[in-house]
Amino acid sequence: MSDIVTQAVLLAGGRGTRLGELARELPKPALDVGGEPFVMHMVWNLARHGIRDVVVSCGHLADRLEQAMRSRPVPGTRVRFVREPSALGTGGGLRNCLPLLQESFFVLNADSLFDVNYPDLALHANGGAALALRRVPDVARFGAVQTRHGKVVSFAEKGRSGSGWINGGVYVLNREIVEALPDGPASLEHDLFPALAARSRLGAVPYDGFFIDIGIPEELERARQDVPAWRRKPALFLDRDGVLNVDHGYVHSREQWEWCRDAREAVKYANDRGMLVVVVTNQSGIGRGYYGLEEFQALMAWVNRELLRHGAHFDAVYHCPHHPSEAREEYLRRCSCRKPEPGMLLRAMEEWNIDPLHSAMIGDSPKDVQAAKRAGLSRAALYDPESQSLLDSVREVLA
Ligand SMILES: [Mg+2]
């Protein structure tokens, strides 16, 4: 299986001519949507999927774009800018980024936002090329895509109307394909993709996540309503030990990590539904001195990489290292985060703008259920790994 993909290129060199006055001073991706540059919603969405190395291909009004993006950084994400010397089109702009590119990477049009399970798309590329398809009520503005057996067969010209599948502007490509592009201006849509499709080398995967293209003024207006609404999300909160992994007691190394039945599939199920997946775990083993914070964090980073290999991910992990009576001095306290207290859930709800009414919690202890109730979640379930798979439990609680 190919390795996980953690890099994305944002194609932001376009001139935005259809937006007229609206994009005269600022490039389209930098236009304000809900208090931040449109493109930063994309960077945020990539980051939560573990994609934290971002390369921006820019040209038109590059200074303004860089200034806007640097003013609203996403913590933990590195953003680098590559300017094209002259207008090179999407293909030429991407080729221009090659010195910074890894073996495989995502490529996204920076003036459209399509919320897909990116790690899942990467699995479908098999180290080659794949694009994300979106069904729309009218393909006229975009051009329809025809597929067969999971591959693109052809691209229709714009103009034909009616519902159908379109290119959603999210791709996975490898270096080799980009290296083969000619020097100078080139278009991914007109030059590269039809050529790959003709050789059955372009995978196509349908998704139904949030989609908006701000290329025309009405859609920019709609984005200003709909993007902030999309940012408010339901979450699936999961306890860790006894839910994701078999509870062997104070698990803190890879050797001790044993997945519960269908746990990775359960996480992916929630990811695919557009929910955040947030782990909330009491880790008094840290307070007791059985293992360190660094070991806990290293283990969770490894667990998340294992998830990414299965097209799944955690959006966030919250832990409580405290204990009221059995901990070293610095961790000895009656805190508000140790479950059954709801502190970890409340903090996550605040930091991630979570909608509690459509969220749920699964734990293997009554303390987990209590914490969920105190946090105002509408649904919580007790999980018994002996009698059920985690996937079945998640399906049940989200039904
Ligand atoms: Mg537990």
UniProtKB/TrEMBL annotation:
GO terms for biological process: carbohydrate metabolic process. InterPro entries: HAD-like_sf, HAD-SF_hydro_IIIA, HAD_sf, Heptose_bisP_phosphatase, Histidinol-phos, NTP_transferase_dom, Nucleotide-diphossugar_trans. GO terms for cellular component: cytoplasm. It is found in: Cytoplasm. Pfam families: Hydrolase, NTP_transferase. One of its GO terms (molecular function) is phosphatase activity. It comes from the Bacteria. Belongs to the GmhB family. This is D,D-heptose 1,7-bisphosphate phosphatase. Keywords: Carbohydrate metabolism, Cytoplasm, Hydrolase, Metal-binding. Residues 8-227 form the Nucleotidyl transferase domain. SUPFAM superfamilies: HAD-like (SSF56784), Nucleotide-diphospho-sugar transferases (SSF53448).
